[in-house]
Amino acid sequence: xxxxxxxxxxxxxxxxxxxxxxxxxxxxxxxxxxxxxxxxxxxxxxxxxxxxxxxxxxxxxxxxxxxxxxxxxxxxxxxxxxxxxxxxxxxxxxx
Length: 95
What we know:
By secondary structure, this protein is α+β, with helices and mostly antiparallel strands.
């Protein structure tokens, strides 16, 4: 979601960023574009994972739940593993 402070944070830090409840996260307050997307897609819990290959930023994977959700360690690890594989696949497709 372009313009999302969560996406910006994930890309700047090159780390996974998530919110358990979008209705209470101060990073999302006062942003009409984000509020509109949250309402339209009924996003309550949000996760952004950078897709990297050898520290080269290729994109992000975004996941969300329609209910408040506490992201578990195994969910975060699985999502990170998928992002790693996507990065490898994108680089191999370019070769």
